[in-house]
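Aim 2, interim progress. The first record below pairs a target sequence with its structure tokens.
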Amino acid sequence: MTASTREEKIAYLRDLSARIQQMTTGAERFVYFAGLIAAATVKIGLIDKKDPVIIIAPYALAFVITYQIQMYTDVEYLQGVREKVEASVNLTQQEIILLESVVITRKYRNRLSVTLAQVFYGLGMVAFIAYSGVRSYAHTWAGVNLLFWNTLGLLGCLALAGSAIYELRRAGAVVDAQITNSMS
């Protein structure tokens, strides 16, 4: 390996690290956005008893949470690429610290608090979906009970979120397989 190739790989690793940090920060901002939607739903929908807000709240939450999961999936893909590039370069301890590889490991990103937060999100989403169904039962749209249309929409939201979660869970293995196949 020539010195310039090593330097190019280290420059690429720095760029990947910056992109990963930006995407992680962006994904964290969606936590606040989901919290605002939930708080507004509780205030306007439950306290002020505005049924339309309760009925559509799960859609807004599903889109926000799905986009957040997609951002985390992109981070997972980039981190997989970063780990492969790091493995191909003999980094010094100082270079490793500068690239934060010890801090942003897959094990760290999937720690217990992250898993529990995801469970909390899921339970909140299920509660909003259930209450949306209950509230939509009393309304009609185009001569059909709104519960029918709402159920179809909510199933679509769950399918969207489920596919995003599936992609996130497979992200690390997919990157490893794609890099291994492209190198052979």
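The second target in this work package is listed in the same format:
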Amino acid sequence: MKDAINEITEALDQQMELNFFMARKLIELSPPDERKHLKKELHSRLSTLRERTTKATLALESLVGDHHPPRPSVRQRIKKWFSHS
């Protein structure tokens, strides 16, 4: 069960990275006058999605008694992405 949770968590993390990559590309391709608003909108949506993903992961981990916090490396990548966009 723990292995399955680790695989799910890894897949969710990869999906979040892909989402942030695609959001960054979308911002780059958008007209300059729309970028600030688009970035704010995408940041809000992706932050909500990440929060829900984290809660789901923690709920899965609690089912098997494995109470590790989410890996900080993903959070650091997300913060880095927003600081550079």
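The mean pLDDT is 82. This observation will shape the mutagenesis plan for the next reporting period.
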